[in-house]
Design brief:
By secondary structure, the chain is an alpha+beta fold. The protein contains four helices and five strands; from the N terminus they run βαβαααβββ. The chain has a five-stranded mixed β-sheet.
């Protein structure tokens, strides 16, 4: 089973554990692009846009992610870690998109983010 591991602060952990929060948000950064896009696509993107600033690369990711130009990485599950501890919980991975998330669930109001959709707790 292919699993995406993410660290959460206590507040977001509690909301996901209770079932109140069904999405997790991550900034569109090189780190999360490398984890959420297919590896070959991310390498191509970095090589093609080398010399461009990060904002330009992120514009390309927003435009093409999920289409044939940039494909999403497939995961079976998301394993959340409460802080940097061994306390974990596992959820079905239901896909990734880019957009504006729910500010009550920790998404910024002024920029788009990766939205990781969660299914049932495993």
């Amino acid at each position: 089973m292919k699993t995406l591991h993410l660290v959460l602060k206590r507040k977001w952990w509690d909301m996901i554990e209770s079932g109140e929060k069904t999405d997790e948000y991550r900034d569109i950064t090189s780190l999360y692009c490398s984890r959420l896009l297919v590896k070959g696509d991310w390498i191509y993107l970095k090589q093609t846009y080398i010399g461009y600033d990060v904002d330009e690369i992120m514009r390309v990711v927003k435009k093409y992610a999920g289409k044939s130009q940039l494909r999403w990485q497939h995961y079976d599950a998301v394993c959340f870690h409460r802080g940097y501890t061994n306390v974990t919980m596992l959820y079905e991975f239901k896909g990734t998109s880019i957009g504006y998330g729910n500010p009550d669930w920790g998404a910024p109001t002024d920029k788009e983010v990766f939205i990781i959709k969660l299914g049932k707790r495993i």
